[in-house]
Amino acid sequence: MLKPGDSAPDFSLPDHRGGETSLNDLLQAGPLVLYFYPADFTPVCTQEACMFRDVHDEIVQAGLAIAGVSPQSVESHARFAEKIRAPFPLLADAEKAVIKRYGANGPFGFGVRRVTYLIRPDKEIADAVRADLGVARHRAFIRAAIDAASV
């Protein structure tokens, strides 16, 4: 897992809308909340995505952007985004190249860790959290990021 002060690796991945989204694209609006999750349509991942969806207006009002990354296909992401009404991009990393570079690969290379980063516009990691089994720490993380950006 990357730590505060580390440089966020560049990437460009297909998004659920059929386009290509890069780290630079996401950082145009300001700091970025980039979260990695194991799989579309699973109970905890759905809960996490809906939690981010429910505070999306606050995220944007605070001057932040948000995007999710997992290894499912663009088609899976499109169905998932439609089901949960995701107002932010879901990026498909089928080869797990970005997942690995961000230290979100699961133990022994299996699965994906639930990791959330706050990335500054200069691509420096400002903060990070990992909590694989639930979303409470991610909820607290996003609340702190919103509160800090709103000050």
Can you offer a commentary on this structure?
- By secondary structure, the protein is α/β, with parallel strands linked by helices.
- 36% of the residues lie in helices and 21% in strands.
- The protein is built from six helices and seven strands, in the order ββαβααβαβαββα.
- It has helices at 23-27, 43-54, 56-61, 74-84, 97-101, 136-150; strands at residues 12-14, 20-22, 32-36, 65-70, 90-92, 115-119, 125-130.
- It has a five-stranded mixed β-sheet with strand order 5-4-3-6-7. The protein has a two-stranded antiparallel ribbon with strand order 1-2.
- The longest helix is centred in the C-terminal third of the chain and has 15 residues, at 136-150.
- It is globular, with a radius of gyration of 14 Å.
- The model has no long low-confidence stretch (mean pLDDT 96).
Would you kindly provide a brief summary of this structure?
The chain is α/β, with parallel strands linked by helices. It has helices at 23-27, 43-54, 56-61, 74-84, 97-101, 136-150; strands at residues 12-14, 20-22, 32-36, 65-70, 90-92, 115-119, 125-130. A 5-stranded mixed beta sheet has the order 5-4-3-6-7. A two-stranded antiparallel sheet has the order 1-2.
Which key features would you list for this structure?
single chain, 151 residues, alpha/beta, 5-stranded mixed beta sheet, 7 strands
